[in-house]
Design brief:
- There is one protein chain.
- This protein is α+β, with helices and mostly antiparallel strands.
- A 4-stranded antiparallel β-sheet has the order 1-2-4-3.
- The N and C termini lie far apart (34 Å).
């Protein structure tokens, strides 16, 4: 199945279903604050596993007790696609208490 860039309206509609996520330039983004560095590190490992499963990878940053992601789809010129929202939904599913931003 070919991956196509989403329109601005499609991006806004999908973001409305994912509280905490936003459009930053040509990427969707979210940060999570966790209770400790160990919890943040564990979340990064879980996100990496999901990324491998989906064969879709984000920019992923580990801070002291934070995890930040930004993503778009490189194979369509760096546009936001449904693949990005699929990954975002999977990250939300594994975030402790659906995270705090």
């Amino acid at each position: 199945m070919a991956v196509a860039p989403l329109s601005q309206q499609e991006i806004e509609d999908r973001l409305a279903e994912l509280p905490g996520w936003s459009l930053e330039g040509d990427r969707i983004a979210r940060s999570y604050r966790l209770g400790s560095h160990s919890a943040a590190t564990a979340m990064v490992v879980h996100i990496a596993q999901v990324q491998e499963e989906l064969d879709h990878h984000s920019e992923l940053t580990l801070g002291y007790n934070t995890v930040s992601l930004t993503m778009n789809t490189h194979s369509v010129g760096g546009a936001v696609t449904e693949k990005d929202f699929e990954l975002a939904r999977r990250v939300e599913d594994l975030a402790p208490g659906h995270g705090a931003h």
